[in-house]
Structure formats: C-alpha cells, structure tokens
Design brief:
This protein is an all-alpha fold. The chain has two domains: about 10-70, Homeodomain-like (Arc Repressor Mutant, subunit A, Orthogonal Bundle), CATH 1.10.10.60; about 75-205, Tetracycline Repressor, domain 2 (Orthogonal Bundle), CATH 1.10.357. The protein has helices at about 10-30, 35-40, 45-50, 55-70, 85-100, 105-115, 120-130, 130-145, 155-175, 185-205. Helix 1 (about 10-30) crosses helix 6 (about 105-115), helix 6 runs antiparallel to helix 7 (about 120-130) and helix 8 (about 130-145) packs antiparallel against helix 9 (about 155-175).
Length: about 210
C-alpha cells in the first residue's frame, strides 16, 4: 500500500483521511463513496488523498483495517493451570458478542455483503481484516484451553464454529436484516451462559 511517510503534519492529514473514509464507507457503502467526497469530508484536496493512498481500493482496505483494530481487542486471553476457565470463557464470549453487536460492526457486515454479492475481490480482504481477526483470538484461546485440559482437544475450527453459532444463531441474521433489535446487556449475559453450557456439554473434559 502506498502511503507518504514523514512529517507529523502528513500523519495528521492521513488520520483525517482515514476517519473520513471510515465514516463514508460505513454510511454510503463502497460504491457510494467517492474520493472527492472523502477529500471534502477530511478537509483536504483530492490530490492529498492520492498522495497518501494510491487508489480507492487501498484507502478502503486501510480504513476497514483501522475500523476493525479499533473494535477488536486482539490481545490473547492468557490461561494457566490456576485460571478460572469459566470466567475467562465468559470474558471471551462477552468480547465477541459486544464487538459483533457494535453499530459499526453491523454496518461492516452490510458492507461485506454488498461486496460479496458482486463477487468483488475486496470482500476477501475485508473478511480477513474483520472475521479472521476475531477467529485468531478464539484459536489462541481454545489452543490454550485444550493444552491445559480445560476442554477436550478437537479441531479448533470446529470449536470456533460451534461457539460462534451458539452466540449468534438465527438471531444475528435477524439483526442484520433489521427485523430484530441488538440484544440488551441482560440478554447478552443469558446468551453467553447458555452458549457456554451447551459448548461444555460436548467438550467437558473426561
């Protein structure tokens, strides 16, 4: 990705451009946002935008990565033999459900569907920046849990798919379609508790 390096002033402009791009891409979609609009929103010239980002695709990828980094705390959850596994598992589920339920995350999902529907190659880059970033957190967590015998060892991808299916279910599709509200905090707590209980029915250590 081509960006200009150097002076604090340039870095400040780059920050404004990214903020403007994030706002417009989430509000108007990929095709609905132009470099002219982004430049105007950022308070810079279109030439300045191109000096920092070589094209719209590059700017889009950088903006989405920045949005995901701001939303997802990808620091691994560390376990040891003395850990309260249930508490750590609950914390991991809270992180996932909270991030997925953010208004920005819902808009990102809509944007991903827009790109996927037209078979745009940007959809894969988008997926790697958002969904795969969250999966990396889960992969590390279940790897530790299996090694420490908190759960039965199994294919980690299967374990990730199971916990996310339990946490989201049909409910999340309805949220994306706008026919159901995002879960309240009390509802999230209940969803997480029930999801962990069902997960542990399959993976409780012998």
């Amino acid at each position: 990705m081509q960006t200009t390096a150097g002076r604090p002033k340039d870095l400040e402009k780059r920050k404004h451009i990214l903020e403007a791009a994030k706002k417009l891409f989430l509000k108007l979609g990929y095709h609905g946002s132009s470099m002219n609009q982004i430049a105007k929103e950022a308070g810079v010239t279109k030439l300045t935008v191109y000096n920092h980002f070589q094209d719209k695709e590059t700017l889009f990828c950088c903006a989405i990565e920045a949005t995901c980094e701001a939303s997802i705390d990808a620091r691994p959850l560390r376990l040891n033999v003395q850990s309260d596994f249930y508490a750590h598992f609950f914390q991991a589920c809270e992180l996932a459900l909270t991030v997925i339920s953010l208004p920005e995350a819902i808009k990102l999902e809509h944007l991903l569907l827009e790109l996927a529907a037209e078979k745009n190659p940007l959809a894969l880059q988008f997926y790697n920046s958002s969904h795969q970033r969250m999966c990396a957190v889960w992969q590390d967590f279940f790897q530790q849990a299996g090694t420490l015998k908190f759960i039965q060892a199994d294919d980690i991808e299967k374990q990730i798919n199971l916990i996310l299916s339990l946490l989201l279910g049909v409910r999340h599709h309805e949220v994306l379609l706008g026919i159901r509200q995002i879960p309240t905090e009390d509802e999230k707590q209940q969803i997480i508790a029930e999801s962990i209980d069902l997960f542990m029915l399959k993976y409780k250590p012998n």
